[in-house]
Amino acid sequence: MFDRQFAKVLETMPAVLATVIQTQGSVPREVGAKMLICADGQVLGTIGGGAGEAKVIQHARSILETGQKRWVEIDLTGAPQRETQGVCGGVMRVWLERWQGDRAISLVRQIVTLLESGQSVTIITPFDQRSPYLSEDCPAQAFLETLQPAPTLLIVGAGHCGIQLARVADLIGFQVIVQDDRPEWANPELYPTAKVANCSIDRIVSDLANHTELYAALVTRGYQFDLAALAALLNRALPCRYLGMIGSKKRVRKVYQALEGISPEKLRSIYAPIGLDIGALTPEEIAVSIGAELILVRRGGTGRSLSER
Fold first, then answer.
1. What is the Cα–Cα distance from 191 to 274, expressed in whole angstroms?
2. What is the pTM of this model?
3. Are 206 and 277 in the same domain?
4. How many CB atoms lie within 10 A of CB 50?
5. Which of 97, 113, 147 lies at the terminal end of a domain, its last residue?
6. pLDDT digits (tens, 9 = 90+) for 146-192
7. Which residues contact 231 (CB under 8 A, 6 or more apart)?
8. What distance in Å separates the CA atoms of residue 227 and residue 2, rounded to the nearest whole number?
């Protein structure tokens, strides 16, 4: 939620930031989940949807006028003696606070700059009349939250699958960089939400040397490009959090056989063929398959159908 869009909203209007600060039992969102309710009625993000979210939006509209920050409890226990907002089984406490003016804009811009540079940010939200601020010194009555920078996905290869994967990766919260030596394929028109690098793979990997949360997806037009990318990425001082390569099992074997000086342990760390087995055929479906695998690695999971539990 702390992104350029948040800052852009505050430049034109006030908004209420709703943050989940406490949960108990089964609930739809985690502590730290956020939603922005803008003065023009626009709502960005979600804290779980349904009647509970509608309750928060209703209170936020009042706070937009009064500026009086407050708690809102969302009861999802389904208890018959209570006015509940769902039947998930738990309870969420949400903090609502109006953000507006130059100070709020400056704070959001500062947070965005730090996050985009790869740094974590600790923000303190006091439960009194003070405004949020950046620090690690947290008073007793406040919510302390450390925001982590979004992971970076390096897409090597700007073809049809790369275009769709960039869209999916942006939707699921990745900063996207696309590397390809062909400007007719790798350009801002085809990748409006990504940074485009028309340079060598060695150059872009060097530029990303200090990124601890680097994910890489090789969707190149030929195995010689896979070889160059794998050689650069597997020899990083900081290992990639995820390294996947598109292609048939035959192509994967051919690439592995051509690699020199790479240990079997490093080869086993590669997700190849890339993506989860969902029967994907089209570039759009392949992008969803890869995106699902990225989420699995980032968040943890089994990849099995939830109905099998």
1. 21
2. 0.79
3. yes
4. 16
5. 147
6. 998 899 999 999 999 999 999 999 999 999 999 999 999 999 999 99
7. 259, 262
8. 37
